[in-house]
């Protein structure tokens, strides 16, 4: 190869190698700084597109979880109210059974009736407050649905149970009383039937709450697995990148030295003219 002052091929090769090393060094430093080996579509377009789709699914799972949490809260509020109504019915049965006794006088029966009606009215107050975020499962026929998947094509339903007085479950009338021995005798049987119906409704509400909770736990695990999958696709191995950084920094220093040596080659021509 000719020695020329116009063209220094050795310097050009050294510069190309130094530029390549510097580019790799920049990539490695970016991976260490961001913790990502695929931070954008320029790094790997296909992997970035897949990861973005999975990130969208993870965000959508947040909406699914929020929907499930709301439904669970509505159902649990209904369970609490139903349990309170069950306790009130048991006390009402106690008063009705006492008022059924033929041996008590009118004053005692009136006292029992007053306690009974106070407990009866408390059922209505309890149910009227059994709402969460404006929704209830114990005073109407509107079911509660929650999102079950990320595209909204599937839902989980919690069925409403109307626990209001005079309904199909709690058959005690809104004006029911134990003011007479006959009324008290009838009321004992009515409350017994209502308690059986109510206990079954509570079991069904509890099952609805459980299935919502199970699906919420599944969604949480699925979201975690998706996030782990995204990490497998785009996260950088910092230990590997750290070792590569040390190697590239050494190569860069050697590249600078090689370029310096190559740049000095034309000066050899000066010795020919001394």
Sum this structure up briefly.
It is built from five helices and two strands. It is mostly helical.
Summarize the structure in words.
The chain folds into two domains: 9-35 and 236-273; 45-234, Up-down Bundle (f41 fragment of flagellin, N-terminal domain). It is 68% helix and 3% strand. The protein has helices at 9-34, 45-99, 106-128, 181-234, 238-264, and strands at residues 144-147, 155-158. A two-stranded antiparallel sheet has the order 1-2. Helix 1 (9-34) packs antiparallel against helix 5 and helix 2 runs antiparallel to helix 4. The model has no long low-confidence stretch (mean pLDDT 91).
Count of domain modules? 2
Number of strands: 2
Determine the CATH topology of the largest domain: f41 fragment of flagellin, N-terminal domain
Give the overall average pLDDT: 91
In the CATH scheme, the class of the largest domain would be: Mainly Alpha
Q: How many strands, what sense, and barrel or not for the largest sheet?
A: 2 strands, antiparallel
- In CATH terms, the superfamily of the largest domain is f41 fragment of flagellin, N-terminal domain
Residue share in helix: 55-70%
Reported CATH architecture of the largest domain: Up-down Bundle
Low-confidence regions: none
Which geometry do the CA atoms define?
Answer: rod-shaped
Instruction: Count every helix, treating DSSP H or I runs of 4 or more residues as helices.
Output: 5
Determine the structural class based on helices, strands and strand pairing.
mainly alpha
Report strand order across the widest sheet. 1-2
**Succession of helices and strands:** HHHEEHH
Distance, first to last CA: 23 Å
The proportion of strand residues reads under 5%
- Rg measurement, Å: 39 Å
């Amino acid at each position: 190869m000719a020695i020329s002052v116009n063209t220094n091929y050795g310097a050009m090769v050294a510069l190309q190698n130094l530029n390549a090393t510097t580019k790799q060094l920049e990539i490695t430093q970016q991976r260490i700084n961001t913790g990502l080996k695929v931070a954008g579509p320029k790094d790997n377009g296909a992997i970035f597109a897949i990861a973005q789709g999975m990130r969208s699914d993870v965000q959508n799972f947040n909406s699914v979880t929020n929907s499930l949490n709301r439904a669970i809260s509505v159902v649990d509020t209904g369970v609490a109210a139903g349990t309170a109504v069950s306790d009130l019915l048991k006390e009402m049965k106690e008063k009705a059974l006492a008022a059924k006794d033929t041996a008590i006088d009118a004053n005692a029966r009136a006292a029992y009736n007053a306690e009974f009606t106070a407990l009866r009215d408390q059922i209505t107050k309890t149910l009227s407050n059994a709402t969460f975020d404006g929704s209830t499962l114990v005073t109407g026929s509107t079911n509660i649905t929650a999102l079950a998947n990320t595209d909204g094509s599937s839902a989980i339903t919690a069925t409403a149970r109307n626990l209001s007085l005079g309904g199909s479950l709690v058959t005690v009338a809104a004006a029911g009383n134990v003011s007479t021995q006959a009324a008290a005798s009838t009321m004992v049987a009515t409350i017994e039937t209502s308690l059986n119906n109510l206990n079954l409704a509570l079991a069904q509400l509890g099952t609805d709450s459980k299935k919502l909770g199970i699906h919420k736990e599944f969604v949480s695990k699925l979201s975690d697995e998706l996030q782990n999958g995204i990490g497998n696709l785009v996260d950088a191995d910092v230990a590997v990148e750290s070792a590569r950084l040390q190697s590239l920094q050494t190569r860069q220093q050697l590249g600078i030295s090689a370029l310096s040596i190559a740049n000095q080659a034309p000066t050899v021509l000066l010795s020919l003219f001394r």
